[in-house]
Amino acid sequence: MALKMFKAVILGAPASGKGTISSRIVKNFNLAHISSGDLLRLNIKNGTAIGLEAQKYIKQGKLVPDNLMIKFIINEINKTKDKPWLLDGFPRTLSQAKDLWDKQQLDIVINLNVPFDVIVERVKGRWIHLPSGRVYNIDFNAPKIPGKDDVTGEDLIQREDDKPEVVLERLKQYESLTSPVTDFYKKKGVLKEFEGRTSDEIWPKVLDSLTSYIPLHITSQKHVL
Ligand code: G5P
Ligand code: MG
Q1: Ordered structural domains, the chain, with CATH
Q2: Going by fewer Cβ within 10 Å, which terminus of the chain is more open, N or C?
Q3: Which pLDDT belongs to residue 220?
């Protein structure tokens, strides 16, 4: 398979580590990372029309309506031109999954299974760098200087939807809407499940699996974290 044809999705509950594992994937393989949540947060910050509309749902822990999301993400995919890509946070409903499949068939769907008790604890310590989507955790990958991004030195923020009551709503939405999505991909034969309580436990298994699909981008510097 030519590298430029590679198309992947990463699924998992809120705070299961999609962003964390995705950043390790893009450091090892030359893929474009399209994170629906990061892109929506940037649009909210920039006050765009989609940002203003999405904010109403995100702050309550609800999903942004399918018609808006599908148009938004397909447009982002088209911007990558011929570059292989990894979609993070999309699709989240069966309708999104079917629509995407009609336009773009996937090579692999990575599903992260992390116990819910672990997730609830993690969210409390999360800080993000909004412009880049870089994600930190005071208990796991703390920034070198508290409250500052390692690369730019800019301020880190906590997400509005990481308040405990909003996280519970996000987990509820996830449980009710996502199993039809994983079933859909299982039937298509592209679903790969990865279980673990930490990203460090899950990462080597993801790396192994992806290496069988695509050659390592950084050959002299294998297994970058
Ligand atoms: P998002 O932004 O896609 P979620 O809820 O799917 O939000 P989230 O919260 O971004 O997912 P994640 O990316 O799975 O989580 O996890 P992460 O950020 O990498 O890790 C979580 C924290 O744990 C971090 O602080 C990280 O450092 C830490 N961590 C990672 N691994 C470990 C570990 O091993 N140990 C420890 N101790 N810590 C660790 O979507 C947001 C909203 O946008 C809308 C929805 O409203 C959604 O709620 N939206 C959509 N709506 C409709 N359709 C779509 N397709 C949508 N996409 C987004
Ligand atoms: Mg994320």
Answers
A1: 7-210 (3.40.50.300)
A2: N
A3: 38
